Amino acid sequence: MLGNLGNLAGLLKSAKELQSNMAAMQAELAAKRYSAEAGGGQVRATVDGRATLVDIKIAPEATADVELLEDLITAAVGAAVKRSQEALQAEMSRLAGGMPLPPGLADLMNQNR
After folding, report:
1. Which of 17, 32, 38, 67 is the most exposed place for a label (fewest CB within 10 A)?
2. Whole-angstrom distance between the N-terminal and C-terminal Cα of the chain?
3. pLDDT tens-digit series, residues 77-105
4. Per-residue DSSP letters for 43-78?
């Protein structure tokens, strides 16, 4: 029975280390920027590692057609968010030692930020 307590202590230590590593990774990712363009560069969106929009650039010629501009903004922001989520997933996989992660775990991490 005492052997099981040793395993539990080791598991708790590993969990605390993983939690600490995750917090550091979240802070590191929050400082990173991920950009994407749409419309041949007419719209450029930038998000941080938390998938929060931090900047958007719109070329003056893109403003002639409002409906097209809306579509370009949506596309650019969506692509930038996807890049951010892919980076988060890659970092989480690295922290987990290459073990496959359950689907949606990156989304859960984004909700907890």
Report:
1. 67
2. 39
3. 999 999 999 988 888 787 777 666 556 55
4. EEEEEETT--EEEEEE-GGGGG-HHHHHHHHHHHHH
Q: Which of 34, 48, 22, 47 is nearest to 109 (CA)?
A: 22
Range of the domain at 87: 2-111
Residue matched to tokens 């590593």: 21
Q: What residue has token string 């939690």?
A: 19
Kindly report the length of the chain.
Answer: 113
Cβ proximity of 112 and 84 under 8 Å: no
Both tokens of 42, joined, read 């007419």
68 alpha-carbon distance from chain centroid: 27
Spatial CA neighbour of 83 closest among 111, 64, 109, 106: 106
Token couple for 95: 């922290």
* Total domain count, the chain: 1
CATH of the domain at 88: 3.30.1310.10
Q: How far apart are CA 50 and CA 75, in angstroms?
A: 18
Quick: pLDDT tens for 29-45. 889 999 999 999 999 99
